Amino acid sequence: MNRSHVGDDAELYVIGALEPAERAEFEAHLKGCTDCAKRVADASQVATALAMSLPAYEPPHRLGRRLAQADGAQVAPRRRFSLWAVVAATAVAFAGVLGWQDAALYQERARTTVALATIVHSHFRHVTMTSSSVGPAAKVLYARDGAWVYIVVDRPVAGVRAVLWRGATARDAGALQPSGGVSTLFVSDANRPERIVLHEPLGVTASATLTY
Amino acid sequence: MEQTDGELVDGLARDFAAGRQGALAEAYTRFGRLLYTVARNALHDEAAAEDCVHDALLRVWRTPGAYRPERGNLRAFLVTCVRNEAMTMLRSAQRRAVREERFERLEPDTQEGIEVPDHVEARRLRDAMQRLPHQERAALELAYFGNRTQREVASELGVPLGTVKSRLSAAIRRLGAELRVEGTPA
Ligand SMILES: [Zn+2]
Prior knowledge:
The structure holds two protein chains of two kinds.
Chain A: H1 9-14, H2 20-32, H3 34-52, H4 61-73, H5 83-95, H6 103-120, E1 124-128, E2 130-131, E3 138-143, E4 149-153, E5 161-166, E6 169-175, E7 177-179, E8 182-187, E9 195-200, E10 203-209
Chain B: H1 5-17, H2 23-43, H3 46-62, H4 74-99, H5 120-130, H6 134-145, H7 150-157, H8 161-181
Bound molecules: zinc ion.
Residues 5-6, 29, 33, 35-36 of chain A line the site of zinc ion.
C-alpha cells in the first residue's frame, strides 16, 4: 500500500522525525519513487551538516573491533601473504637482470635494483594491506622513519595507483608496475605517509595504515 | 596529482552497496566517528550508542540494495540510517521507562562531548540556521537537537501536525539551498 506521494516526509525522514510506522511506510515508498529518492538525497546532505555540528565523541575501540569481525566473517578468510613471498618474488625479478634485452625491461630492473638496495641498507617495517574488495593480497614494506615505501601486490595488475595519505593530504604516488608474477611500486620520497590506499579506476582495492 | 577523498569514497560506496568484504570496516574507518557522534548525542549512553552504530551499519551492509547511489552519497545515507536507528532505540527505551513507571528522563550522559566542532561546515550550518524563520528554526531545533518526532514537536509547540511537517520540511529545504549555494561539497 504505497501512498502515491508523500508530501514532506523526505525531509522528516532524514532527521528521524517520522514515527516508526510512518518511517516503514516511507521507506517502502522510497524504493519505487525517484522523486522522493532525490529529495532524500538532498535532505540527507543537511542531516550530515547537522550531524557535523554536534559535539563530537570518540567511539570506543570495541565498536571498531566488532565491525571488523563482522566484516571478516562474511566470506572465507583471505589468502595469507608472507613477507618471504615478497622477498622471494623481488629476488626473482632481481636475478633476471642477467637476461634483459629491451629498454622497458631495463628501466624496470633499475627500479627494482634501487628498491632492493634501499631495503637492504635500512631497517624497515611491513604491513599487510586490507583488501576492500575481493582484491589481490598486498603488502607494504616501509622505512621506520617513513622515508620510503615499497608496495607489492601478489599478481600483475594494470591501472592500480597508490595514494599516500598524511593528515588530510593525499598524494598520488603513481601506478604499480607489473613485474613477473607481482606488481610493485617503490616510492623513494614517501614523506612518512600515515595511510596508503590502492585504487583502480573502479574503486578502492586495498588500504593499510602505517605506524612508526 | 592531488586526490580528493570523495573519489576514493565513490569506490567504497560501490563496494558497500555490493556488500563486499572490507567495505564495512572501511566505511567505519572513514565515517565511524561521525556516526557514533550522531548516536551518542541522541542516546546519551556509550553502550547504547555503540549498539546503535553496530546494528545500523551491519544491517545496511548485509541487505542487498539497501544502499543505492541515487539515495545520495554513502556518508549521508549512513548518517540517516544511524539517526533513525537511534530514534527507534530512544523511543523503545522511553516506552520501557514509562511501562516501568520511571518517568524521569534518561540518565544524563556522564561524559562530555570531546569538542564542539568549529570547522567551516559546522559554522556555516549554524549561520544558516540563524537565518531561518523563527518558527521553522524552533521546530527543527526541537526535532533534531531535542530528539523529538513530528508528533512530539506538534504537541510541545501546540500546533497541528501538518504545520509541523511543513515547518520542518521547509527548514531543511532552506538549509539545503543555502549550503549548496555556499558550495558545500556533496
Ligand atoms: Zn515519492
